[in-house]
Amino acid sequence: MDKFQALKGMRDILPGEVAQWQDVEEKARYFFEANGFEEIRTPLLEPTELFTRSIGEGSDIVHKQMYTFEDRGGRSITLRPEMTASVLRAALENGVLRNSKTSRLYYLGPMFRAERPQKGRQRQFFQLGAEILNAKKVEADAEILALVQGLLSFLEIPGFKIKHNFLGEENERQTYIDILKNYFTAGKSRLCEDCHYRIEKNVLRVLDCKMPGCQPLIEAAPLLKLSDESRKTYDAIRNALETRGIPAVHEPRLVRGLDYYTGLVFEVVAGGDLGAQDAVAAGGRYDNLIASLGGPAMGAIGFAAGMERVLLARQSSQSAGSRTVYVATLDARPETEQWLDQVLKKLYQAGRKVKREPSLHSLGDHFKKAVKAGARFAIIIGEMEVKNKRLTVKDLANKSQEEVTVDALPVYLAGHSD
Ligand code: ATP
Ligand code: MG
After folding, report:
1. 209 CA distance to ligand 2 centroid (A)?
2. Around 17, how many Cα atoms within 13 Å sit in the side-chain half-sphere?
3. Is the per-residue pLDDT at 317 higher than 60?
4. Which ligand 1 atom minimizes the distance to the CA of 81?
5. Which of 7, 65, 127 to mutate to test the pocket of ligand 1 (most atoms within 8 A of CB)?
6. Which atom of ligand 1 lies nearest, measured to the CA of 127?
7. Whole-angstrom Cα distance, residue 276 to residue 240?
């Protein structure tokens, strides 16, 4: 019989690599919350129209990447390709925006897009992102970029670069769209099939095409001329970034793949192991989207980072295990289990991660496992330890060993960690 395989572009994350995922997830949660953001979790499935209306017919996502199907009641539903629309739907539906306060929300979770799988590009992928709803202009623009900069630094992404551009107001964009339409239509024969479609549906997206053949025409394309008002806003954002010490560069042809952006848009690229898929995060302001989904007229701004790309870009793979404590039990007697419960509780309170291998009972095998897990400490609970009400704690880095009471454990670990 044929063996089953995961669907194309959908990967299993196996025990060996999961520590890296948990590390990034934990750090991201900590960072978002420390910056005043609250987590929101929404369903993976949404009514299709939520995405077609927000992301736009002209986007690659709606045009050809959505997993859309009919449910048993004949309704068209879609696996979320991104989170902004879902976050807004949830905020509006649950009255989060009712008292017109600013809401800071973050999310972590899988997204689905039917695109050609490559390194850093999958059909099920994972995003971490944040939105500021009812966001003040300039202030919130600088805040979100500071958040992106802070998060990626906190996650130890080496050498990333923030690029931004300003898309202006509706009328400025419309004028620009007309100019681009003429320009690209004239050079149509030098553009790919997808770009032909984009010229009709959303010509700005041609600027976002990654096909090498399209680049010469794109590089020579006319630039958006901002009104005095927009230029002032953009300058103010850039000043605010400078004041906050956030390095970011203007990229005149940067547009984003979704239709709903207005004003500031940005992208973060990194090196590392990323290759062609070098965008680790992207986002922008979307001042008309809340109203277009039936909510009040209020501006918002957000970003999303791709987890797979964050992991590829990260240098430090060793830091994931440094907080891990390996706990070895040498038998499974009820007294041992009771003692173990207390130890686990203490370790949790001390903010440690625990690694265990319940089916092992030989000390030598336990140590091998502990080293393999990258744990800094191994705690041994054997017959003697239970009798003496003391733990044997081995510092695997210094190869030293000490007997410690459960109560003294957090202080011991803190004192011996770097
Ligand atoms: P790209 O230009 O690489 O296709 P995008 O413009 O479609 O990216 P966004 O929709 O802005 O990307 O999503 C934000 C981030 O999510 C991207 O910068 C990237 O890190 C990640 N991402 C997007 N699509 C995928 C995918 N199919 N697989 C893995 N990560 C992805
Ligand atoms: Mg894409």
Report:
1. 10
2. 8
3. no
4. 10
5. 127
6. 16
7. 31
% of the chain with per-residue pLDDT over 70: 98
d(CA 103, CA 114): 31
Q: How far is the CA of 284 from the centre of ligand 2 (A)?
A: 15
Distances (CA, A) of 181 to 122, 167, 257, 406: 31, 16, 17, 71
Q: Which residues line ligand 1 (CB under 6 A)?
A: 82, 113, 115, 120-122, 125, 127, 257, 277, 279-282, 304-306, 308-309
Predicted pLDDT at 273: 73
Comparing 275 with 269, which gets the higher pLDDT?
269
Condensed to tens digits (0 to 9), the pLDDT of residues 378-405 reads 999 999 999 999 999 999 988 899 999 9
Nearest atom in ligand 1 to 267's CA: 18
For residue 315, name the pLDDT band (cuts at 50, 70, 90): low
**pLDDT above 70 (res 321):** no
Ligand lying nearest the CA atom of residue 209: 1
**Sequence-distant contacts of 187-194: CB under 8 A, at least 24 apart:** 187/217, 190/214, 190/216, 190/217, 191/217, 194/60
| CB-count burial class (<10 Å; 0-12, 13-18, 19+) for 416 | middle
| Distance of CA 19 from the midpoint of ligand 1 (Å) | 23
Q: Considering the chain, what percentage of its residues have pLDDT values greater than 90?
A: 74
Rounded to the nearest angstrom, the distance between the alpha carbon of 81 and the centre of ligand 1 is 10
Q: Whose CA is nearest to atom 6 of ligand 1?
A: 257
CA angle 202, 204, 206 (to 5 degrees): 90
pLDDT tens digits, 150-196:
999 999 999 999 999 999 888 888 899 999 999 999 999 999 999 99
Which is it for strands 324-329 and 377-381: parallel, antiparallel or unpaired? parallel
Taking residue 222's Cβ as centre, other Cβ atoms within 10 Å add up to: 10
Per-residue buried b or exposed e for 283-312, using 16+ beta carbons within 10 Å of the residue's own CB: bbbbbebbeebebeebbbbbbbbbbbbbbb
Average pLDDT over every residue of 219-237: 94
Question: What's the gap in Å between 109 CA and the centre of ligand 1?
Answer: 13
Nearest CA to ligand 1 atom 29: 121
Residue 328 has pLDDT above 90, yes or no: yes
Mutate to test the pocket of ligand 1, among 66, 202, 308 (most ligand atoms within 8 A of CB): 308
